[in-house]
Amino acid sequence: MGMRKLKITELERISVEEFKRADKLPLVVVLDNVRSLYNVGSIFRTSDAFRVSFIYLCGISAVPPHPEIHKTALGAEYTVAWKYFSSAADAVKELKSEGYTIFSVEQVEGSTMLDTLSLDKRQRYAVVLGNEVKGVQQEVIDLCDGSVEIPQYGTKHSLNVSVAGGIVIWDFFKQLH
What we know:
This protein is 33% helix and 20% strand. It has a seven-stranded parallel sheet with strand order 3-2-1-6-4-7-5, sandwiched between helices. The protein has a single domain, classed as 3-Layer(aba) Sandwich (Alpha/beta knot). The chain is globular. It contains six helices and seven strands, in the order αβαβαβαβββαβα. The chain has 177 residues and is α/β, with parallel strands linked by helices.
């Protein structure tokens, strides 16, 4: 009873055109000053995998096209819709005006642990991922409806931003898909 690895031709990938037409997850991912282009690319790739509606790139977060984004995005920067904002606060204000429920992914007083978060399939959501060193800016946290924290049980109290993004996007996908 072997487990043969699937060939790339067996994975039934959809085309870029099919992706653009496909139903998307009611989720926008907001990057608040994410410095590393590899992290930006990685978040594009995860967002493609789970059909995230939009990525909002804010502040110093780099925008496609860029070779370093492409190195980790592997083309997902051409499938996932994105917009640039000079500030994440402006991005969050726009999302609020459009009726989104917005969570920062951050360790704050009164944050909701991700494993206890319950989402409503009738709503649209946004999650804000912050800078690798400083996290999500306090002024952005203040504009959000809440904060989600990933429970951690080791000696470190932080995760790489693209890893944190992957965990949160997957959890939102499981609840909203």
